[in-house]
## 1
Amino acid sequence: MKIAVLSAADVAGMYTATLMARGHEVSIGPFGHVPTAVTSMIEDGIEGVLILTDDDENFDEIAARFTRATGRPVWRNLTEIPR
């Protein structure tokens, strides 16, 4: 599964390693301006989004628009992601 991780760079590395060990392909954000980010994620074939920060309006908006556009999941915890 191809997963986008929305997080501060210092946190994303540990989660990326875990996801890759589970066989997932990972892209790390931020991905820029919200509409551009969503379009880019859809074009890249992202199948789900993991948000690792609380109260980041930009990441929340990216995730919400991505889900509305694709129906694909948004997770807030590593344990929610299917293996």
## 2
Amino acid sequence: MAQFELLQVEARTGKVEASLPMTSLQYGDTLNQAGSASIAIPLSVADPAKLTPGRSALVVLRDGEPDWGGLMWSATADLAAGTLTMGASGWHSYYTRAYLVVFEMQPERPLFGRWRGYKATKDQALLLRDWLQWTDGGIDTDTSWITTTGRIRTRDWGFAECKSVAEAINELADDDGGFNFRYETYWKARGQLIGNRFLHSTRLKTSFPTLTHRSNAEVAQVSYDGTKLASIAWVFGADDGTGGKPYQRALNELDAPYLAQVATYSDIKSVDALNPKANALAAVGRKPIALPSLTLYPDVYDPARFMPGAVGRVKVGSGYVNLNDQFVITERRIDVDVNGRETVSLSLANKDVFVSGDTS
């Protein structure tokens, strides 16, 4: 049985401030999102001077190694039960509150300056490094593992558009020819300092073992979503000031009535930048999306083999549900009961949704 420990960490520096006893623990990772945790501790062990929303980070250790980390954003004290329940979101949640704007001094007018946004044409990886290193006094995300992809992208946001770093990263990842990303929590100095690093990879690069209903997993339900089907996908950009907008389209052949999907990106100003958006929207609309939810049988696999973004086969044969296909993990959730037993639940979606039609 795995051993779990909760660390209270100063978010800005990564300094470990305390090891806290837990009365309940649930945490999870979501594909290209922050993920979340809900953790309860005895009310008597909390230090109100240091354990505070926004200032504190929470890190879950599994057998002594960081398995999840993120910022604490909320806390609810239940005086009757004697517990403090903390809500946390993964490191990416910090970047929803960091914006790509900067105050630029004007040397010729020392008392004046102006706010500006961000403009660059670079490899995806170099854009990511720029954005994650933009904010001074942030959470010091390690960007040294970000490697170039050969995919050149242009981004241009004015100050008034006030683009958040997280939104910029998510839109870049969602492009056709995009990528999966996550933040790894790690020991900078064992027992003393925690770090977080940004990792990205080509879609469908990692895999997980075949999961078979009632053999090594219990499939709780499978839902099917046809609302994203698209015979044609239209994407529009920013108004050019005359009422016109750049646009792109992509097509699918469907065994269904003619269906359209439309999206607008008010901060994209060029037709070329819209092309990967159109391809991505069309890729999602090729077929109805099957969404299985399942629970791993205990003590069969290491939960670390089932991270969001991994692809593998799921087999289910039960009446209407007849699956023997490749799926991608979109969410991993871990619940630990009072006896320390963990339950690992997965949410998945068709592999086809994540297959890129663009190689640029």
## 3
Amino acid sequence: MQIQTLRIIIAILMTLVIMLYFYTNREKDYYSKSAEPAVAQILTEISSWEKQALLTHLAPEAKQTVNDEQLDQLMNLYRSFGRFRSIQEINFSRTVSAFSLVSEKRINYSGIANFDGGSVSLNITLVERGGFFLVYNFTLAKASEG
């Protein structure tokens, strides 16, 4: 009896994993047409490294977590990267997509972007509001050579 129960539990878990895989694959395909171009557009606009350009793209909850001094420090740090040129590599996060089933929909990408100053590691989380994508969170860091 216990082995039969274990088999049923394993079958259910495997079914859930397969369903999550197909769900996140569908999400990846869907957002590749809208969110990926939005990432490039957002990076183009904020890479002037002016505070107002960034604030225009931040989600309200992101704006609430950062003060003016922190924004100035962030802009000074990122200014050394120069202007955004292109996305070299971008990867959709299936994990964030799966967790969005039980919370607000978030779309996360990581990858490598090309800036005037060279390659930069990128991690950006977007939320969709009113047909637009807003930045919920993002980080940039100089990509390691090699």
## 4
Amino acid sequence: MNELPNLTDQQLLEAHEASDISAINGIVSLANILRGRNILSDAEASALYESMSLPLGMAKYADNPSVQDIQLNLDRLFAMVVDPG
């Protein structure tokens, strides 16, 4: 295995942020595909959204502006997946 370069704290933070964004986008994209194929119900998509939102609302994270931004993005992405009707 290759050795990891000495990364700065900023580089580690940015890598973690990019990883989070990638994972969230992938999960929402998959949910959207499954909804389009009628494999995932609104209730199941809502449950997925709730499980992803739960840690973001925890007291130790909820006041963090970056976490609030993640929650807002998650809200917007899932609004496209779950049928509002």
